[in-house]
Amino acid sequence: MIKVRLYIGPHGQVPIMTLTGFLAYSAALGVAAAIPGPGVTALVARALGSGFRSSLAMSFGLMLGDITYLTAVVLGLAFVAQTFGMVFLAIKWAGVTYLAFLAWRFWTSGISPETVEARKGKGGLASSFLAGLTVTLGNPKTMIFYLAITPTIVDLKTITLVDYGILVALTVIVLFVVLVPYLALAAKRACS
Does the residue 14 lie in any domain? Predict the structure, then answer.
């Protein structure tokens, strides 16, 4: 049985993450989302082939996939942090090492061009939404991102439901701000 403890501060207050923590999370997510990968490639292809509405539905599927991973990491790592302190510390440093490796690899190799093939999407908006969800859930880099970044920025021993709600809202906002320009430009290109 997993017990969720609510941390109460010395003066009876329930601490929430700091503004700095939320900004760091948003910045890291924004950078990761802006770098073209399988999700952005699929989204641009959907926009080129099926237009704005279909690709917008797909972007909501991509967002739900990210929220699913965020939730799994917060719940799972909160349990590990509360139960196995040293194991959690090892996971945290493994995440830091992985992020440093990705930064080094990106710095030394740059961005490689992707070939995007535009085809008319089959099915309606629900099909586009499910396509976005499955692209995100099938992308191990998304899961590794959340495993690496969440324990580095979020104190999982004291996370509250309010913190989690703010993280979910920030995830949706950041992904929306990053993904909509991709799909709008691709849809505009498809119309011209």
Answer: no
